[in-house]
From TrEMBL:
Protein name: CoB--CoM heterodisulfide reductase iron-sulfur subunit B family protein
Gene3D superfamilies, sorted: 1.20.1050.140
Keyword Oxidoreductase among record annotations: yes
Keyword terms, alphabetized: Heme, Iron, Metal-binding, Oxidoreductase
Record domain Cytochrome c: where: 65-183
InterPro entries documented for this protein: Cys_rich_dom (IPR004017), Cyt_c-like_dom (IPR009056), HdrB/HdrD_reductase (IPR051278)
Source organism per UniProt: Merdimmobilis hominis
A molecular function GO annotation: metal ion binding
Length: 261
């Protein structure tokens, strides 16, 4: 199976290992991630202003490229996924935005939200199947208590992203079970870690991250996994005193499948 792939800026620069783990794991599961040519930064944050069109154009180009290839578009970063999915929804439901974007881009064929955008976790659940992954695991995380950290962007807004229940999700816990670990449910798993205010208010970011880590530790987690590079960075900057290491989920997947370098 071949799927179009949007890696995003962070996974092509500061977090190349996470991208490599994702690609190698996908290949081990029978899926080839075909990177979209000449993709551009999605902006990292969805622009909520109704008249803000320019910052959505790079996402529309990527979405249109996947449409031209006749493939679903897979993202590995929750921020990229959030932006692409919301822009795709705009192009499908808002005639004014779609009209302006199409007139500006002058694509060979107008784009109106036809591409199916999925997160890598959805690919694992819906394209591969967690039962199949469990069968292919070579190095299970037996005995490891792993907390899933969803953060702000992976599930919200729920009516647009439609990945899981934003208040009581299970997709990452099911992933943890598939690689042989024991999921730890803790109240702060889908609360903000403060990543977006790290530069302007480091104390607040530390406080938010500390609450997440403390809560996970109190509930018995040996480690956390996340699907957001910014959350990964922010939480790992604030692990002092909590002894809860934080990993990107593709790193654990690659290790479980036996393809980690």
């Amino acid at each position: 199976m071949i799927l179009s792939y949007y890696p995003g800026c962070t996974l092509k620069t500061k977090a190349k290992d996470l991208d490599r783990y994702g690609r190698k794991s996908a290949e081990a599961l029978g899926i080839t991630l075909e990177e979209i040519p000449n993709w551009q930064c999605c902006g990292g944050v969805y622009p909520i202003a109704k008249d803000e069109i320019a910052t959505k154009l790079s996402s529309v180009r990527a979405l249109a490229a996947a449409k031209a290839a006749g493939q679903d578009l897979v993202t590995l970063c929750s921020a990229c996924h959030n932006v692409l999915k919301q822009v795709n929804n705009d192009m499908a439901t808002d005639e004014e935005i779609a009209g302006k974007a199409n007139r500006y881009l002058e694509l060979s064929e107008e784009y109106h939200g036809e591409t199916n955008v999925i997160h890598y976790l959805e690919m694992l659940r819906d394209k591969v199947g967690f039962d199949k992954i469990k069968e292919l695991v070579k190095n299970p995380f037996t005995g490891k208590k792993i907390g899933a950290y969803y953060g702000c962007l992976l599930l919200r807004p729920g009516k647009v992203l439609k990945m899981d229940n934003p208040e009581n999700p299970k997709i990452m816990e099911d992933f943890i079970r598939a690689i042989g670990g024991t999921p730890v449910i803790y109240p702060m798993r889908n609360e903000c870690c403060g990543g977006y205010v790290t530069l302007e208010d480091k104390a607040l970011a530390n406080k938010r991250s500390g609450k997440v880590l403390e809560n996970a530790k109190d509930m018995g987690a040996d480690m956390l996994i996340t699907a957001c590079p910014l959350c990964l960075y922010n939480l790992n900057q604030n692990t002092d005193g909590y002894d809860v290491p934080v990993y990107y989920f593709t790193e654990l997947l690659a290790e479980a499948l036996g393809v980690k370098d």
